[in-house]
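Tokens in:
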């Protein structure tokens, strides 16, 4: 899981000195807080440690004189400890705290940790140190106007001055701490250099002595994490005879107090945290959680866990990823749905609104960066009224823009300011049933209400920050229910405030809790809110990574949490579904709420009580049907492996002697019993390892049932009789050895070594055949020299183990020899170009048996072919959607005959060309889709030695496999988006967008069928308490046959109808309830006429 971008990546060490140069009779003490780590900078285990602290008159303990020392048993929690130095062993009165001293720290017998910051004079009672085990923070003291530098960390400020921040774009994820060191007669102003905003404000002021402003860049914008009031003890307070040294050191500020607001290890980003580590001690699991079998006896926790008050919520689908292409997001901030279910997503960092169909397929976009009509600057909020007009909170332009149903600009209102109708960074808006528009005017700390024509009506809130009822601190979300009640997420007051339809305060929901174990009903930056038709209230609890749900009266009901939900910034309820916008994972997640549903299976067989069904529906157990059994056509049949009895009740039986086959009744009155039998496979007594992808469903008491990872019931094995199985995997997100940031290509050399293009780490990592790290090519930093890279993508290795790398944003192909030494480059040396031999973002590369080199260019929408010596030969393709034309081609492959296969990404197809470059045929419809044979951004293509075609259907999270003639064969479904893959020695090497390398064994035999099975328990459709293996409260329509290994029990209707029971010419099987007489009857003239009967 990715870490929240607001969390600090380190903890500074702070020092507080109590005492004064004017009162030597008062015992001086130092309050010291530190962060204790091991040699890998990982916090030590919670325990008590013996620690020795010392003061020195110089920075080198080999030459300096030790002036004081004491040893304490220190309690450490989450790496953090606090100690009052001088309390156990008092400081000598001879120490002059107005001069510099140096602090040494050691743990047990470990070496002293030297501190390179000095104690400051006693009149300045707060400072921060840089310890060599903490990762260090640079300190700068200033007393005049100062522009912060990239290398600064802590800035100590004295005087009435302005501190200027660098551009947030230039210092992504940089955290600064700005501390005011003098009294309230001066003001420190913090502003940006280019008009960027800080939390939607142009500047922030610090007024109190020793106050601390923490501010962080997300790479796009500055965010203030608040001003910490750590005002020190003044000389007057210390000299006051009523305040003794005991009172000063009474432990009011304890270690636990400090730790409550600290950032613990679980909140820090750590690329080495992988699912198997999370499931290291699974115990019983949470009721409803699933253990996913790896097929080898080990499991990972999977699926999502819903804590709720009623029936379960299930994942429907999700879409989106980080980027600026269509369908991708750069911090999506909000969303809304129109009357047709189309989804409108505010793409904050890309300055646009993207529109998707109800199934999450991209449709079109509204807007681009700018301040003109229809242009946006960091938009945040969106609403759609009853006429499907679109309203957008254009945050950094401080206005609301209105569009028609086609996305065309209509009007706007608002301007920058704090007057009536003016705005500062509006974050959200909604429209009520009367057309009134409610705007969360975030940085003005108020709600403004406008008429349907955009005229100002009234405001809620004082216009300045406050925490009293009816006051706000950065309100970010707003909703109005059907009764006109107004709900506001008061974000930095960590609560929801509710107002009447006239804007009067009614009540509040929630309280603040920023710890990882926040209780239900507590919030940490609630960001958005929605109310459903029943009045239930849904709150996006951003930092606590959950959706909290409350009753219409504000009483907590349940929470929705999930492995998918990491940073929920918006929530919407529509047509019994919950839509969650997850800002930092750049995706939209859709859940089905409890209620009736329709479940369909397009292909393959469904088994209940068996894992190998041979029919469309095979049930190993009794089937109970409350309503009609409808046989849809004249060739349908009711069959039984060994048909002992067909019964209406226990007293009524029909015996067919030696009936060991299928009983078929047709419209012409014929009845046949065929030979042969199909027996149902039985469940194994010992479940063993389970099948790959199957899940153990926790009952919460230490016992489990087999089921499906997604739904907790069905296991789906798609597309193969003995399908592609995961062999092993390695890798995780990060920049360390064996970690990846967007791996976009993979290749295997003749020794089985695996080469991975680690794109955003600008390197190639090489692993052994078993996945162990070997070495890297490239320094890991962006560069344009030999063996330096800028976002490398495709990679291929020829028969001589020469390595060809698409160095994408250096617009070249680098060729290395088998030893990894630079050989030569293709492409120019001065950037992109369109001339022959020049490239614009080459993505894929392939080499044929003669050594000719084929390069796919994303920017020039073509393929260039070079000789084995690297000389330009010819080009294939132009920009477009016709045969032989390309739109952002992404990769290329060649088969044994030299035919060329191109992943035509934005045309959602694979184009197949002859060896001469002539168009042959396409795979895919040319428009995005999720059905078999359809694609949504195919990223990669490869062909194995038998001619089978493998396609990375990226946005559909799968690999689709086709025969040599282009016919669909089967699919491999994946958890994440596949970036690339490579076929080598009957194995499939896949890279995904979460930094994983997955190695699958190719299937030994395949089919196009999909099997859906349930091994244990009963299945109910239309009933929540089935008493049989399959119980249906409703009609069942069967186009094939029923093949049963036991009795078929009929309801009290006494008949099975073949077709519509009210239509002449149709047939039925009938049991007379009085005589148990069984007959086959036909409907003639509205009456059932017996044609023949069967008796014992």
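Residues out:
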């Amino acid at each position: 899981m990715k870490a929240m971008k607001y969390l600090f990546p380190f903890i500074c060490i702070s020092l507080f000195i109590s005492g004064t140069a004017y009162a030597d009779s008062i015992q001086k003490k130092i309050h010291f807080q530190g962060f204790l780590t091991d040699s890998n900078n990982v916090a030590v285990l919670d325990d008590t440690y013996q620690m020795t602290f010392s003061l020195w008159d110089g920075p080198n303990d080999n030459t300096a004189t030790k002036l004081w020392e004491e040893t304490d048993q220190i309690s450490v929690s989450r790496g953090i400890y606090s100690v009052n130095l001088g309390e156990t062993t008092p400081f000598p009165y001879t120490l002059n705290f107005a001069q510099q001293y140096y602090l040494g720290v050691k743990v047990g017998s470990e070496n002293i940790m030297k501190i390179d910051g000095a104690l400051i004079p006693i009149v300045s009672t707060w400072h921060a140190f840089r310890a060599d085990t903490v990762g260090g923070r640079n300190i700068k003291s200033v007393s005049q106007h100062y522009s912060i530098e990239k290398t600064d960390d802590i800035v100590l400020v004295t005087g009435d001055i302005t501190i200027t921040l660098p551009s947030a774009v230039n210092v992504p994820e940089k955290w600064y701490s700005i501390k005011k060191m003098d009294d309230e007669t001066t003001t420190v102003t913090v502003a940006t250099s280019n008009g960027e905003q800080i939390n939607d404000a142009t500047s922030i002021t610090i007024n109190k002595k020793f106050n601390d402003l923490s501010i962080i860049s997300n790479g796009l914008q500055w965010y203030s994490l608040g001003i910490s009031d750590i005002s020190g003890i003044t000389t007057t307070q210390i000299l006051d005879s009523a305040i003794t040294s005991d009172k000063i050191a009474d432990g009011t500020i304890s270690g636990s107090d400090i730790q409550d607001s600290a950032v613990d290890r679980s909140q820090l980003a750590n690329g080495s945290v992988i699912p198997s580590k999370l499931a290291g001690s699974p115990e019983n699991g949470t009721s409803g959680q699933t253990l996913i079998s790896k097929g080898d006896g080990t499991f990972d926790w999977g699926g999502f866990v819903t804590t709720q008050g009623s029936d379960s919520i299930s994942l429907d689908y999700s879409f989106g990823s980080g980027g600026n292409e269509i369908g991708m997001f750069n911090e999506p901030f909000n969303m809304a749905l129109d009357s047709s279910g189309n989804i409108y997503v505010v793409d904050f960092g890309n300055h646009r609104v993207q529109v998707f169909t109800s199934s999450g397929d991209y449709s079109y976009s509204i807007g681009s960066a700018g301040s003109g009509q229809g242009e946006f600057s960091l938009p945040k909020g969106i609403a759609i009224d009853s006429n499907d007009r679109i309203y957008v909170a254009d945050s950094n332009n401080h206005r609301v823009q209105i569009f028609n149903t086609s996305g065309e600009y209509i009007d706007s209102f608002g301007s920058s300011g704090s007057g009536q109708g003016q705005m500062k960074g509006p974050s959200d808006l909604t429209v009520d049933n009367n057309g009134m528009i409610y705007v969360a005017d975030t940085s003005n700390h108020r709600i403004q209400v406008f008429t349907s024509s955009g005229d100002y009506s009234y405001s809620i809130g004082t216009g300045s920050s406050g925490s009293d009822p009816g006051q706000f601190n950065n309100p970010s979300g707003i909703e109005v229910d059907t009764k006109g009640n107004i709900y506001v997420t008061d974000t930095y007051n960590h609560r929801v405030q509710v107002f009447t339809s006239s804007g009067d305060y009614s009540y509040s929901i929630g309280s603040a809790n920023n710890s990882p174990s926040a209780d239900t009903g507590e919030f940490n930056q609630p960001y958005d809110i929605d109310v459903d038709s029943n009045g239930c209230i849904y709150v996006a609890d951003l930092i606590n990574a959950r959706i909290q749900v409350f009753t219409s009266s504000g009483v907590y009901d349940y929470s929705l949490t999930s492995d998918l939900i990491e940073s929920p910034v918006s929530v919407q309820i529509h047509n019994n579904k919950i839509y969650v916008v997850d800002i930092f994972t750049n995706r939209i997640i859709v859940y089905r709420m409890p209620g009736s549903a329709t479940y369909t299976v397009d292909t393959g067989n469904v088994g209940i009580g068996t894992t190998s069904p041979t029919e469309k529906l095979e049930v190993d157990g009794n089937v109970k049907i409350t309503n009609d059994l409808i046989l849809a056509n004249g060739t349908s049949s009711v069959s039984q492996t060994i048909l002992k009895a067909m019964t209406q009740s226990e007293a009524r039986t029909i015996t067919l002697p030696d009936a060991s086959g299928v009983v078929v009744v047709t419209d012409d009155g014929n009845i046949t019993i065929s030979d042969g039998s199909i027996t149902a496979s039985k469940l194994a007594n010992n479940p063993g390892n389970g099948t790959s992808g199957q899940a153990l469903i926790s009952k919460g008491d230490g016992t489990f049932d087999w089921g499906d990872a997604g739904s907790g019931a069905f296991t789906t094995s798609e597309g193969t009789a003995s399908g592609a199985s995961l062999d092993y995997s390695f890798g995780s997100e990060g920049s360390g050895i064996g970690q990846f940031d967007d791996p976009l290509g993979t290749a295997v050399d003749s020794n089985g070594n695996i080469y991975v293009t680690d794109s955003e780490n600008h390197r190639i990592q090489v692993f052994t055949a078993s996945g162990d790290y070997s070495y890297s090519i490239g320094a890991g930093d962006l560069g344009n020299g030999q063996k330096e890279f800028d976002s490398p993508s495709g990679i291929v290795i020829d028969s001589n183990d020469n390595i060809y790398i698409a160095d994408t944003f250096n617009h070249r192909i680098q060729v290395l020899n088998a030893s990894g030494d630079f050989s030569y480059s293709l492409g120019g040396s001065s950037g992109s170009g369109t001339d022959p031999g020049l490239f614009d973002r080459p993505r894929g590369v392939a080499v044929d048996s003669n050594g000719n080199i084929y390069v796919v260019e994303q920017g020039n929408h073509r393929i260039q072919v070079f000789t084995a010596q690297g000389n330009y030969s010819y080009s294939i393709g132009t920009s477009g959607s016709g045969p032989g034309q390309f739109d952002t081609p992404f990769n290329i492959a060649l088969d044994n005959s030299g035919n060329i296969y191109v992943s035509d990404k934005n045309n959602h197809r694979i184009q197949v060309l002859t060896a001469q470059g002539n168009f042959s045929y396409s795979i895919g419809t040319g428009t995005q889709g999720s059905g078999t044979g359809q694609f949504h951004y195919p990223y990669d293509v490869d062909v194995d030695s038998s001619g089978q075609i493998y396609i990375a259907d990226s946005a559909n999270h799968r690999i689709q496999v086709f025969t040599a003639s282009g016919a669909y064969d089967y699919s491999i479904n994946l958890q994440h988006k596949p970036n690339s893959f490579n076929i080598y020695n009957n194995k499939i090497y896949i890279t995904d967008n979460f930094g994983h390398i997955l190695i699958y064994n190719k299937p030994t035999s395949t089919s196009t069928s999909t099997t859906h099975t349930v091994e244990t328990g009963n299945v109910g459709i239309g009933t929540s308490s089935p008493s049989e293996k399959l119980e249906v409260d409703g009609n069942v329509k069967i186009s094939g046959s029923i093949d049963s290994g036991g009795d078929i029990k009929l309801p009290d209707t006494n008949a099975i109808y073949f077709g519509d029971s009210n239509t002449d010419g149709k047939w039925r099987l009938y049991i007379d309830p009085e005589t148990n007489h069984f007959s086959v009857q036909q409907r003639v003239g509205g009456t059932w006429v017996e044609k023949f009967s069967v008796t014992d």
